[in-house]
Every structure is written in structure tokens, then in C-alpha cells.
Amino acid sequence: MILERQVPIPRGTTTEPTWVRRTIIGIGLVFVTLFVVIPLATVLISAFSHGVAAYGRAISDPHALRALKLTLIAAAIAVPLNLVFGVAAAWAIARFRFPGRALLVTLIDLPLAVSPVIAGMVFVLLFGAHGLIGPWLSAHGVKVIFALPGIVLATTFVTVPYVARELIPLMEAQGHEEEEAALVLGASPWQMFRRVTLPKIKWGLLYGVVLCTARALGEFGAVSVVSGNIRGRTSTLPLHVEILYNEYEYQAAFAVASLLVIIGIASLIARRVIARRKEAVS
Amino acid sequence: MTISVRSIKKQFGTFRALDGVSLDVPAGELVALLGPSGSGKTTLLRILSGLEQPDAGITLLDGNDLAAQSARQRNVGLVFQHYALFRHLDVFENVAFALRVRKRPEAEVRARVTELLQLVQLEGLGRRLPSQLSGGQRQRIALARALAAQPRVLLLDEPFGALDAQVRAELRSWLRRLHDEIQLTTVFVTHDQDEAFEVADRVVIMNHGKIEQVGSPTEVFEHPANDFVMRFLGHVNVLEARFEDGRARVGSVSIPVDRGGEIDGPGRIYVRPHEVDVVRHPGNGAIAARVVRVTPLGAGLKIELTAPALGSSLRADVDWERGSALALRDGDDVYLSVRRARVFAEAA
């Protein structure tokens, strides 16, 4: 007893010394402040540097509104496309073993691996005036490059991974038994999907859609290449910011940029909320 | 409904899951598919349910070929090993599922689900989610769900596999009573011999995608068709032997065997531990042995012995009364005699 009491209580092996903890936390805080908080704060401060009225003018400018509309249209087409593709691809990959399965998994990740500018150039090479099928399309009155279809294509391409990547591990972990049970209980394939699969993957799907939407609204590189960036006609919000910036209209550029920041923060909050629901369910 | 399968074959890649299986299950019977893992019993169940297609062979329900019917058209009740309850639906909607997808009127759904929840003794839990139930409760809900649409046959895959021992024992006898009540042709898969014997009318013993033996629990235990069944059903002492004149020579000892005259030359004899007698003093035909270890086991004692004359160690099971009369301790010298030794022609 006496011996035991004389031995000093050892520091828990999982607890770092105080100075180590403070240093690590300090590095984290300084980094986030320098590279995230200050730039974002600058955007908002600059946006309002000429007052609220100037901010209002900048974001209600017809070209800005046109850019916002174009951005939303592109996202409204690209996101549902990727929703359907993502569910189908995740289903196929999680449920079946087929030739080319590994290739499909790799290809889904491809848009994350290549620079968006390259992606844009691929579409120009395909659909441009001197591209592979561009001349044929323009002969039939279809304009892809420097027009909405090109923007939608580029946006769809860069947002391919988000829904599928969210769903593949989820569906693999959940297994197929509930679906089999539904079939044996007399459900049609559609009833099985609607009543069993969809509720199971609901939160993961929503999470993927939020990521996909945020990316679709913010995409710059690929869209910049295919759209030609024609002010008021083919410029999306991020492109419009660049135009304003190049024209030394800093306050207006930051005002429009603040819209993108707000969208970004909103999607972050949505992600947090959904992630919590997702965990609560699974 | 009678179930018949004829020459069913099923291969997964290079693995032969079923290799020509034929079986008849008469209406109202409860049959256990018993075998080690990988013996094909679950595959057979999945083929009956329509979740797998056989490579060859036919499945019949009351004489009608099932090949053209998908899983959803067959109307069989299937209880999965891990229940596969719908995690986002409460107990009531889980049980109601088969009726909902058939678009039955609300009043009928309510009446049927209430009746089933009573049958499985879980009325009052309708609004719980599966995650809020114990293992035994989930099991019974899975059964109620499978019965909802009045299935033609009931199939159960390791129904008690994931439960602890006491709940298992209760559910076994409950399932047997339930079957006697509803009289539904039932096939259940298990790797547990006690479970199969306690619940089933007949036991189908499977191994490597083939049926080794079909019979009542007593038949297969008392008259195993081959050495696999003998070894699979409970512990058995297997002794290398040489057959001569209807007797088996094991080491320096000669032992009379069943059907001994049919075999000559080298082979094996099979002796159940409860068919080995242990005595303190030498007698007619007794074999000298030494006690290695005595362990209490259920209703008796398990005695591990070495017998130099047999060139082997073996196990004897005696009841408590006999055990306490012997008062054995590790290392004691004893004598044993074999009451019954079996031989199998295939093993010789």
C-alpha cells in the first residue's frame, strides 16, 4: 500500500504534454485564419466597401442576374443528370460483379483527377467549330460550344463523382438483403427501389446532391473554356466575377463573389445537418 | 403444398454449391437442411425462394414448375439469417409490407398485422423500429412479416443463428408449436444438430452440395448412412482397424462389429462415446486404459482416455450416476469395453 502510494501517477499514455497540444491547435488556428477566414472576410468587406446600395446595384445588374440565371439553369440540368447516373452507377457497382466494374469505379473519379480546363478543352475538341462532331452539329443548327449545352456538358462532367462516390460505400455497407426480402415479399423492382432502397440511401443521396450542387454552381475552369465567357450571354456567376475583376470593378466583383460565398456556406451548413441525420440513421 | 426438387445443380464460379440434389417435402411437414457451412443448404433455400436460379434441374410446388416464376410471383415466406427487417419502417409496416405492395385495403392490412403480431406474441410493439428490438423479437417480427401474405411455403435460413443460447432454446420450441398450429410446409436451414433434431419432422443431411441422408432424427442418428453422417452427428471415436472373420482388430484387441462379415482388410470402426463402457476392474474382453481428463458435460461426464492396446485415445460418456459410482480422477487406471462398433462400406 505504502509503496503504491509513493509511485507517482503516470501521465495517461494517450494524453500529449500541454505544450504539444497547444502548438498543434495553434498551427491549425493560424492556418485556417490565414487561408480561410481572412480571404472570406475580405470578400464580404470588399463587397460592402461602397455601401449597401452599391452592393445592391452590383448584384441586381442585368449581366449579374443573367449570369446567376445561367448558373442555376446549368446546375438544374447537371445535378439531376448526375443524381440519376450516380444512383444507377452506385447500384451497379455495389450490387453486381461485371467486367469493367473496376474501370467504371476509376472513371467515376476521373473528373476529380484531371484539371477542369482539360475537361473543357475535350468538349471544345469534340464539339467546337473544328472539332470531331462540332461541324456536323452546327450544320444541323445545334450550337454546343459558346452556348448553354456546352456549359451544361462541362458542369455535368466535373460533377460526375459526387453522388456516385457518396453512394457506393454506403450501398456496399448496407448490403442487399432488404432488397431481396422486398422481392420475396412480392414487391416489383420499382416498389423495391421506392419503398426500400431509396429510404435507405436517402441521407447519403442528399449529401451527394448538396456536394454536387455546390460544385456545379462554383465551377470555373471547364465552363470558362467551353462558354467563351461572353458577358451577359454565356458567363456564369464565377465567370462574371472574373470579367468584373478584369475590368477593375473590384467592389462589384466582390459583391457577386459574395453570392458564391453565401452559397458555399449554406451548402456547408446543409452538409453538417445531413451528415448528422445520416449518422443517426445508420 | 408439397415441394419437390429434381437434380438441382448450381455453380458459383469454380465452386459447386449444389451437385444434383433431389428432395421431396410432403405438405405440412417441417424439414431441416442440416450440414456444415458450404454444404449448399442455403443455396437450395435461395433457389426455392427464387432469389437464385439453378443451372440445371427443376423445382416444383404442388407439381407446378417454378422456373417461370420470379421471386415476387412465388409467394413463399422467407426468413433471412439476419432477418433483413426494413430498418426505416416500424414493426407494423414491416409486417404489413407484403400487403402494402399488393395494395390491400387499409382495414384488411390492420386486421392481418394485428393478428400476426398476436401470433408472434409482440402485440403492442407495432410502433417500434427494428433497431429498438431484441434479437429474439426481431426474429419473430421477421417470421410475422414472412407469413403476412399467406405464403405457400415457409423457408427459414439459420433462423436462430444470431441469438444467444437461452433465447434460441425458447424460440425453437415456440417455432415447433407454431408450426403445429399453422401447418405450413416449412424448410429450415441449420448447422446445429440439436436444433434440427428438436424442431424438424425430418432431417436432410447435406455435404459438398449433395444430400447424404434423409430421415427422421432417430433414423439418421441411430442408422447413419455413411461415415460423414456418423461423424457429423455428434462426437464419434474413429479407430483404424483390420477386418477379419467378422471382427475388427484394433491394435492388439479384437472387437465384434455390425455388418463385420461384409468387409475384409483395412478400414475404420466408429464408436459413439456413450457406447463405451468404463469399469474399474478387468473383465471379459476389457481393454486397459488410463483416464486423461474427466469433464462434466450436460447430463453426465465426458471421460478422455488413452488405451495403449488400441494404439489410440478415445472418449467415453457416462451418466452422472455411473460417473459418481466410478469416482474417477485424472490418471486412474480403468478398463473399457466397446458395446457397439459401426463400420461403413465406403470408408473401408
How is the CATH topology of the largest domain in chain B named? Answer: Rossmann fold
Count of helix runs of chain A = 13
Terminal Cα separation of chain A, in Å?
Answer: 48 Å
CATH architecture designation of the largest domain in chain B: 3-Layer(aba) Sandwich
Summarize the SSE layout with pairings.
The complex is a heterodimer of chains A (282) and B (348).
Chain A (H helix, E strand, L loop, with lengths): L1 H5 L11 H30 L3 H10 L1 H34 L5 H13 L2 H12 L6 H6 L8 H27 L2 H8 L4 H30 L2 H7 L9 H10 L3 H32 L1
Helix pairs in contact in A: 2-13, 3-13, 4-8, 4-10, 4-12, 5-8, 6-8, 6-11, 8-10, 8-11, 9-10, 10-13, 12-13
Chain B lengths: L2 E10 L2 E11 L4 E5 L6 H9 L6 E6 L2 E2 L5 H4 L2 E3 L11 H11 L4 H14 L15 H13 L6 E4 L7 H18 L3 E5 L2 H7 L2 E6 L2 E6 L1 H6 L4 H6 L4 E8 L2 E4 L2 E4 L8 E7 L4 E4 L7 E11 L2 E8 L4 E8 H7 L6 E6 L10
Parallel strand pairs in B: 3-8, 3-9, 6-7, 7-8
Antiparallel strand pairs in B: 1-2, 1-4, 4-5, 9-10, 11-12, 11-14, 12-13, 15-19, 16-17, 16-19, 17-18
Any overview of this molecule?
The complex is a heterodimer of chains A (282) and B (348). Chain A has 282 residues and is mainly α. Chain A is built from 13 helices and no strands. The longest helix of chain A is centred in the N-terminal third of the chain and has 34 residues, at 62-95. Chain B has 348 residues and is an alpha+beta fold. Chain B has two domains: 3-229, Rossmann fold (3-Layer(aba) Sandwich); 236-347, OB fold (Dihydrolipoamide Acetyltransferase, E2P). Chain B is elongated. Chain A binds chain B through residues 177-178, 180-188, 191, 195-196, 199-200, 281, and chain B through 49-51, 70-78, 80, 82, 84-89, 97-98, 100-102, 145-146, 148-149.
